[in-house]
Amino acid sequence: MTAPDRIEELLTATRDAFASGSLVRLKLGGYHGPEPELKSVEIKKITTKTGEKYSFTYKYKTRDTIKNFAESEALELLRAGLTEEFRSAQLATTGFDMLFERNGAKQRLKRTEVKGREAPSTDHNRAKNRPLTETDKPWLKALGITGNNGVVRHDAQDKFRQINKMVEIFAPLIAAIKAERPLIVDMGAGKGYLDFALYDYLATVVRRPVRIVGVEMREQLVEDGNATARASGFGGLSFQAGTIMEFDASGADAVIALHACDTATDDAIFKGIRAGAALIAVAPCCHKQIRRQMEAGQADGRLEPLLRHGIFLERQAEMATDTLRALLLELNGYRTRVFEFVSDAHTPKNNLIVAEKDGRQGRDRDAVLAQIAEIKMMFGIGEHYLEGLLAG
Ligand SMILES: C[S@@+](CC[C@H](N)C(=O)[O-])C[C@H]1O[C@@H](n2cnc3c(N)ncnc32)[C@H](O)[C@@H]1O
């Protein structure tokens, strides 16, 4: 059967965009063919070991299937699909959009020019390894990462990479929690980047039942977060207004705090320890509480050259604060690791303290207490804020 002209026009535009590297994606919708669960098909360009391919993601009600095709085969499939089974198609390129609609024998094709859109990377492995590949989501748009067309904005590429990285780090930590439907509390959630990304990945990609609560003292952010969670159909994700210390964290399986300010990190660790959370993970922010004590000049005189320059004092304050946090966590039954969280191209505050409750009884409490006392004495620290909370 000869394909009607509008379809040929769309296919020519798709082929040209593929060849010039300007193809963002082609999406086929309005399916009315023989497969009962098929909803849509998305086509992108990818680069594999055997060359450039058209990658078709067949989106079914409960799963996705990906098949890659060489050009001639892909165009044949598209021609047949648009003639017989799909009533609409949207082509997105870096320079224009095309909307195709078919109603019986009638066909329409509308072209709209666009500006400032980037083509996605065609690197097959990178795209495949990224946990969040689907970008046409209300939460990504609400957080300003994607535009109206569902494509990641040029100026939000770094943020999108960063949230994918967060999911890569947190998903295995959450997977290790034994609870059937873990409760994750994100303290100082801000706009909830982590919460939306993690919920989306856990609930819709790997289908692990989960509840996530973001605690945030700025009420407007909480209202916005709840509205976006509702619009996304994320029933297990909510935001609660108030301070970390006011929040009742009992029953939490994981307590997370990313760049919560200064001692808000300690509040979060304290709540996690008291709740007996299986996982406590914090990326500390500023370290003023300890820095002020170190600046008061009570540190061991031999450290003077290390603390003389403001920038090194800041780093020493950071290391002393977080080392003490790690030791206090150990003292409370947690196995603690510290590692780099996101590249410091994004932020210099890039350490993540990950503490997993291992309930080890044989730990030498006296030795840990002695280490804490010695570090405090060396750096002239009277009291670590977290230590005070735990003692209270
Ligand atoms: C630097 S932002 C980080 C936001 C988010 N965690 C992220 O990484 O994108 C810190 C957030 O913590 C909130 N915050 C700070 N101290 C808090 C406290 N004691 N209780 C509740 N929220 C707090 C602030 O309002 C702010 O939104």
Q: What does it look like?
A:
By secondary structure, this protein is an alpha/beta fold. The chain folds into 2 domains: 5-129, no CATH class; 157-391, 3-Layer(aba) Sandwich (Rossmann fold). 40% of the residues lie in helices and 26% in strands. It contains 13 helices and 14 strands. It has helices spanning 5-20, 71-84, 124-129, 138-142, 157-175, 193-205, 219-232, 264-275, 288-295, 304-307, 310-331, 365-379, 385-391, and strands spanning 23-31, 38-48, 51-60, 64-69, 86-93, 96-103, 106-113, 183-187, 211-216, 237-241, 254-258, 279-283, 334-340, 351-357. Strands 4-3-2-1-5-6-7 form a 7-stranded antiparallel beta sheet, with helices on one face. Strands 10-9-8-11-12-14-13 form a 7-stranded mixed beta sheet, sandwiched between helices. A hairpin with a 6-residue loop joins strand 1 (23-31) and strand 2. The longest helix is centred in the C-terminal third of the chain and has 22 residues, at 310-331. It is elongated and about 85 Å long. The protein starts with a helix and ends with a helix. The relative contact order is 0.08. S-adenosylmethionine binds next to strand 9 and helix 8.
Largest sheet: 7 strands, antiparallel
Whole-Å distance between the termini? 80 Å
Strand content: 25-35%
What is the number of independent domains? Answer: 2
